[in-house]
Amino acid sequence: MQRQLCIILLSKRELAMTIVDIPITFMTTMIFAILLYFIVGLQTSAGQFFVFYLFLFTMSLTMKAWFRGVAAAFKAEASAQAVAGILLLAMVIYT
User: Fold this and answer.
1) What contacts 37, CB < 8 A, 6 or more positions away?
2) Is residue 18 scored above 90 in pLDDT?
3) How many other β-carbons are positioned within 10 Å of the β-carbon of residue 50?
4) How far apart are CA 88 and CA 5, in angstroms?
5) In the 3-class helix/strand/coil scheme, how is the chain assigned residue by residue?
6) What are 64-92's pLDDT values in tens digits?
7) Is the dihedral angle over the CA atoms 64, 67, 68, 69 positive or is it negative?
8) Considering the chain, what is the average pLDDT of its residues?
9) In this structure, what DSSP letter does residue 76 have?
10) Among 12-16, 50-54, 62-66, 74-78, where is mean pLDDT lowest?
């Protein structure tokens, strides 16, 4: 509704969503990183764990922003999901 009436600029909305997502992503990534790091049995030093966590946190925020950017480029949700899936597959295969 707000997008159609241009009450809030899309860039401001997405910036606000990213800022709100940082603490949520921080906590969910921390739980996931603790579980994954120690269940897999990686080296138990604090420095290596925080490098691992920093990588996960950065990639999580990057991928959220990437998917939001793809979604903003399309009006229909179905077409955005289809294109995002194909682009993600291409990124995984060719990088």
Assistant:
1) 49, 52, 53
2) no
3) 12
4) 32
5) CHHHHCCCCHHHHHHHHHHHHHHHHHHHHHHHHHHHHHHHCCCCCHHHHHHHHHHHHHHHHHHHHHHHHHHHCCCCHHHHHHHHHHHHHHHHHHC
6) 989 988 988 888 889 999 999 999 999 99
7) positive
8) 88
9) S
10) 12-16
Q: How many angstroms separate the CA atoms of 41 and 77, rounded?
A: 40
Residue that is written with structure tokens 């997008």 in the block: 3
The DSSP-derived string for 6-19 is: TSS-HHHHHHHHHH
Burial, 2: exposed, middle or buried (Cβ in 10 Å; 0-12, 13-18, 19+)? Answer: exposed
What six digits make up the tokens of 85?
Answer: 């899936």
